[in-house]
Amino acid sequence: MTAADVEAAIEAGIEDCEATVTTPRAPDPDHEDAHFAAVVVSPAFEGKSLVQQHQLVYDAVGDAMTTDVHALEIKTYTPAEYEEHGT
Fold first, then answer.
1. pLDDT per residue of the chain (87 residues) written in tens, 0 to 9
2. InterPro entries recorded for this chain (predicted)?
3. Could you give the dihedral angle defined by the CA atoms of residues 53, 55, 58 and 63, in that order, rounded to the nearest 10 degrees?
4. Integer distance in angstroms from the first to the last C-alpha of the chain?
5. Does the model's pTM come out above 0.70?
6. How many domains in the chain?
7. Could you tell me the residue range of the domain that residue 53 belongs to?
8. What separation in angstroms does the CA of 49 have from each of 4, 24, 45, 77, 82?
């Protein structure tokens, strides 16, 4: 699974979502595990706790979290939060 695949899964699974997924570490060719970092912006996060927001992202990635993705660093924002604090 590539960063683009993870990004597409998140954007397909969360309404009005914009995701940017990167690989913060150099991939280890000796392991199938992949580490990804995602910045996800969506109005779907309004009124939800950070845990609920991250659960939406994990749900969007789905079964790949147990097969293709070893680690997923997540930063979630509503559009207003991203405009104010996003990096």
1. 888 999 999 999 999 999 999 987 666 666 555 788 999 999 999 999 999 999 999 999 998 888 888 789 999 999 999 998 865
2. BolA (IPR002634), BolA-like_sf (IPR036065), BolA/IbaG_stress_morph_reg (IPR050961)
3. -160
4. 25
5. yes
6. 1
7. 3-25+34-85
8. 26, 25, 8, 11, 16
